[in-house]
Amino acid sequence: MPADKTIQELGLDEYKFGFRDPEEYFFKTPRKGIDPEIVAMISKHKNEPEWMLEYRLKALEAFYAKPTPQWGGDLSELDFDDIFYYISPMENQGRSWDDVPDDIKNTFERLGIPQAERESLAGVGAQYESEVVYHSLKKEWDDAGVIFMDMDSGLREHEDIVREYFGTIIPADDNKFSALNSAVWSGGSFVYVPKGVHIDIPLQAYFRINAENMGQFERTLIIADEGSSVHYIEGCTAPTYTSNSLHSAVVELIAKPNARIRYSTIQNWSHNTYNLVTKRAVAEKNATVEWVDGNLGSKLTMKYPAVYLTGEGARGEILSVAYAGDGQHQDAGGKVVHAAPNTSSLITSKSISKGTGRSTYRGLLKVHEGAVNAKSRVECDALLLDEQARTDTYPYIEIEEKKVNTEHEATVSKVGEDQLFYLMSRGMSEEEAMAMVVNGFIEPIAKELPLEYALELNRLIQLEMEGSVG
Amino acid sequence: MSATNSTNGVPETLKNKGVSEESVKALAAFKDEPSWVSEKRISAFEKFDSFPMPTLKQEAWKYTDVSDFSFDDYIPYSPSPDVQSEADLPEAVQTLIKEGEENSALIVQHNSETSYRRVDDDLAAKGVILTDLHAALRDHEDLVKDKLFGLVPEDYDKFAALSAAAFSGGTFLYVPAGVSVEVPIQSYRWLDVDGAIMPRTLVIVEENAQVTYLDEYASSGGDGEAFCNAAVELYVGEGANLRYVSLQNWARNVMHFNTIRSTAGKDATINSLVVSFGANLSRTNVEAGLDEAGSDSEMLGLYFADEDQLVDHHTLQDHRAPSAHSDLLYKGALRDESLAVFSGLIKVEPGAQKTDAYQTNRNIILGTDDAMAVSLPNLEIMADDVKCSHGSTTGQVDESELFYLMSRGIPRLEAEKLVVFGFFGDVTSRIPLEGLREKLNLAIEEKIGIGFDKSVTR
Q1: Which of residues 250-289 of B touch A (CB under 8 A)?
Q2: Do B382 and A411 touch (CB under 8 A)?
Q3: Can you tell me the distance from the alpha carbon of B384 to that of B199, in angstroms, rounded to the nearest whole number?
Q4: Residues B421-431: tens digit of each pLDDT
C-alpha cells in the first residue's frame, strides 16, 4: 500500500469492528508483518506524541539494518512477516478484579494469583494481548507519589519522565530485537518510585499471548529514585499454539544512588514461542539491582539480563534458573559491567535439561580499567536428566583492571543414582524423587522468590517433569 | 650424524617475499618428495588462498587482531647449513642445549631446514626414529603417510592450510610398540633471519610405548620481522604415554602461530605443557582428542605477557569416547600493556558417558592497569552421565600473602616475586623435569624483573 494514504483510507474503521475472532478486538493491525505504515498506525491508534512516532520509525530502520544474530539459538524458522505486531483486546482498562476477563482469571487461578491478590498483592497489571487491562494500586502509594501503570498510560500521563529515560539504557539500535520492540512496543509497565520511598509489597504484572501469530512487545521502564526501593514481579504463562509466536520485550531499570531494585520473572511461554528479550539495568552510586530470572517453556529463549555498575559501591546480582524440556533451547545468562570502583557482582545460574532439551549459559563479566576493587563471582551449575539432553556454558570474562577479584565456576552433573536410591528407599516413586532432587538443585534461586512464586516455580517444574504442562 | 638436507640450488621464487602457487610448486620440486605430498601442498595452497584472513568478527579471533599481518611480508624459505657436530651449531643454540634437559636424542631446525640431529645408539637399536620430516618422507613413507596432515589438516584454518602448503624442515619422532624412552628427546627451532619458518612436527608413539618430547622455539632477535607457522600432530597409541612440552621463547620480532592436536588411544595418557613467553603475538591452539575409552589428557599451560605482547591460547578437550579423563590448568601473569586471551572448551560428544573433565584458568595482573586478561572457559555437554567443571579467576598478587611474607622479614619486592613464583608453582610442580623447571623459573624471574617494585600499588 502506498505510504501516503491516511488511516481512514486504509479502512481502519472496518477493522475496528469487523473482526470475527472469538475475542472482541478493539484494534488489530490490518495485516501481518511490519513496515513504516504499520508502525505509524500503532502510534496513531495510541495518540502518541510526534517524538515517539519518530522514535519508532527510526527504530524500524535499525531493525531492518541489524542482522539476525548468528550466535545463540536457532532463529532460522522465525518469520518476521508472519506475525501480527499489534492487537488490543479492549478499549478500557479494568479498575477492579471483576472487570478482568474470565480467561485471564483462569490463568491467574492456575497460578494462585487471586489468593496472592487477597493476601499480598498491592497492584496487578495484566497484559492481555499487548495492552494492560487491569491495575489496582494501593492508595497509600498514590499518596507517596509512586507511579505504577502501563507504559502507554505512562507516556500519556508522565510524558516528561518517560521522554527523559525511555531508551537511554537500551538504545533502539542495541540489537535487532530491541530495535523491533522500539518500533512496535505496546504495553508493559512504567514504574517511578520517588526519593526515599520504600515499597514493601512487590508490584506484579502478568503477561500472556493468546492470539495466534501475535507478537508481544511490552516495554517496561522502572526508575527508583535516590534511596528508594522496589520489587517488581513479572510472570508469564501462555497456552500452546501450533504456529510460532514471538515475544520480544525491552526492560530498562534505573537505580539512582542508594536505591534498590529487584526484578523477578518466571516465564513459562508456550513451546512454540520465541522469547527474545533485552533486559538491562544501571546501578548508580551504592545502588543495588537484582534480577531473578526463571525461564521455562518457549521454543527458544535468548535472554541475558544485564547490570551496568556505573557508580561507586554499586552492586549487581543475577539469579537465573532455566528448564529446557524436549525440543526446547534456553539460552540465558547474564551480563555485568563494572565501570566504577568498589563495585561487586554475583551471577548464579542453574539449568536443567531434560529429554532433548538444551540449556545454555551465556554471560559477560567485564571490568573496566579504573574499577578498582571490583569483586565478582559467577557460578553456573547444570543438571542433565537424560542422555539426549545438552548443556553449554559460554562465559566471557574481560578484565582490564589489576586490583580485582573475579571468579567463575561451572559444574555439570547428572542426578546421582545414590540420591535417587536413597529417596526411593523411603517410599518415593522415581518421579517424586527426581522432582525432589531438582527442587533442591534450584533452591538457591527459589528461596529468593516470594513464597507463592517459589511454590509456583516448583510446581511448574514438577508439571514439566511430568510432561503435562501445556 | 648430520641431517640430509640439500640447500644447493634454492629456487629463486623462494627468495622473494610472499607465498604463491609458484613458490609452493617450486618448494615441492626442490624437496623431491612423494607425489602425494606435492599434491597435498597444491590443494592446501588453494585452501589457503580461499580462506579469508581472520577478523575480530570471528568468535575464535575476537580479541586477537591480525589485520596488520600479511603473508606477503615474509620470505617463505631460508636455508641453513648442515653441521656435523653440536660444536658447529650457532653458539646460542649450544647454550640452549647445555641449559636444557639431558637428552637421549636431539634435533635442531635452523631457519627452514634441519641442520643437525643425534640419536643415541641404544635408542636407534630399539627402533626409535628421530629425523627431519623430509627424510622421513623418503625413508619411512609407510609410517608417515596416513598420519601426516591427519590431525592438523589443511582445512583446519588458514594457518594450517599454509603449513600444509609450505612446510619445510620439521620433525618426525617414532617410538615403536613397548619401547620406553627414559631420557627426554629434545628438539630446537632456531631462527636468526627475517622471514617465515614453517616447521611441522609428527609424533607417533605406538602401543604401550612411552616418551618425553620437548619442543623449544628460540631466536636471535633482529630488526626485521619474522613469522613462525607451526603444526604439531601427536598420535598416542593404546596404553602409551607421551609427555609433550612446547616452550615458545621467541624474540619480540616474531609472530607465532601454532596448532597442536593430539589423539589418544585406549588407556593412553598425554601430558602436555604449553609455555608462551616470547613473540610479539603468539596464538596457540591446543586440542586433545579423547578418542578411546580410558584415555587421559593432562593439559598444562603457562604464559607471562609483558610490554605489548598478545598471548592467545585456544584449547579443546574433545571427549568422543566414554570413560575418558581430561584435566586442564592454564595460568598466566600479565603486566604493562599486554593482552592475554584464554579460550578453552570442554566438549562432551553424545555417548561419551562417564566423562570426567576439568578446566581451570587463572590470571594475575601485575604492574600497571593497562594489561587486559580475557578468559572464556566454555562447556558443551551432550551426554548426561558426566562430571565436568571449569573455573576461572583473575586478580592481583594477594596482599594477605604479601603481608604474611613481609611480616617474616622478607622485603616487599622479594615477597612479590615469591608470590608470583607460588602462583606458577602449582603448574611447574606438576612437571617431573627438573632442568625444565629451572629454565622456566629463570624465565619467570626475568619477566618479573626490573620495575616490578614500582609497579605494585602501595
Answers
A1: none
A2: no
A3: 41
A4: 889 998 999 99
More confidently predicted of B44 and A142: B44
Strands (E), A194-271: 203-208, 219-224, 229-237, 245-247, 250-255, 260-269
What are the cell numbers at A10? 486504509
Nearest to A408 among B365, B377, B388 (CB): B377
Residue B51 near residue B61 (C-beta atoms within 8 A): no
Model pLDDT, residue A2: 39
DSSP H helical ranges for A210-309 = none
> ∠ CA B272-B277-B281 to the nearest 5 degrees?
105
By the 10 Å C-beta count (0-12 exposed, 13-18 middle, 19+ buried), A172 is classed as: buried
Alpha helices in A24-112 (DSSP H): 36-45, 50-65, 102-110
Considering only CB atoms, which chain A residues are within 8 Å of B389? Answer: 409-412
How does residue A460 score in pLDDT terms, banded at 50, 70 and 90? confident
Q: What is the rounded CA–CA span in Å between residue B333 and residue B417? A: 12
Residues A156 and A43 sit within 8 Å (Cβ to Cβ): no
| Beta carbons within 8 Å of A469's beta carbon, 6+ residues apart | A268, A296, A297, A460, A463
Chain B CB contacts of A389 below 8 Å: 384
Yes or no, beta carbons of A395 and B363 under 8 Å apart:
no
The number of helix segments (H) and strand segments (E) in chain B equals 11, 20
Determine the Cα–Cα distance for residues B306 and B447; give it in Å rounded to an integer. Answer: 7
Q: Kindly identify which residue of chain A lies nearest to residue B393, measuring between CA atoms.
A: A407
Please tell me the distance from the alpha carbon of residue A13 to that of residue A390, in angstroms, as a whole number: 51
Q: Note the pLDDT of residue A111.
A: 52
Give the residues across from A255 on adjacent strands. Answer: A224, A283
pTM: 0.86
Please give the single-letter amino acid code of residue A246. L
Asked if B43 and B28 touch (Cβ cutoff 8 Å), the reply is: no
Helices (H) and strands (E) in chain A, counts: 12, 23
- Work out the percent of chain A whose per-residue pLDDT is above 90: 48
Nearest residue to B280 via CA among B64, B109, B101, B32: B64
Helix (H, G, I), strand (E, B) or coil at B195: strand
C-alpha cell at B324: 575418558
List pLDDT tens digits, range B303-327: 999 999 999 999 999 999 999 999 9
Tell me the backbone φ, ψ of residue B331, rounded to 5 degrees. -125, 140
Nearest of B336, B368, B347, B14 to residue B168 by alpha carbon: B14
The backbone region for B448, taken as left when phi is positive above 0, alpha when psi lies in -120 to 50, beta otherwise, is: alpha
The pLDDT of residue B447:
85
